[in-house]
Design a protein that fits this description.
- The chain is mostly helical and 60 residues long.
- It has one domain.
- The chain has three helices and no strands.
- It has helices at 4-12, 20-41, 48-59.
- Helix 1 (4-12) runs antiparallel to helix 2 (20-41).
């Protein structure tokens, strides 16, 4: 779940005029980061070794 202060901080970094799509994209990225952090806290993330193995398969 996103915190209002994180959303406001991200929106304040935008220029005075911007496309709405850019603001939505930022919120989507913030939400995905928040979900990933929660999954890591719950032990659902990968170790560095596991991630490297997956990347090696994808990149070869």
């Amino acid at each position: 779940m996103l915190l209002k202060k994180e959303v406001l901080k991200s929106l304040k970094e935008l220029p005075d005029e911007f496309p709405v799509d850019e603001a939505i994209d930022r919120l989507i990225v913030l939400n995905k980061i928040s979900k990933a952090q929660s999954e890591i806290k719950d032990g659902k993330g990968l170790t560095t070794i596991q991630a490297k193995k997956k990347l090696k398969k994808w990149l070869s």
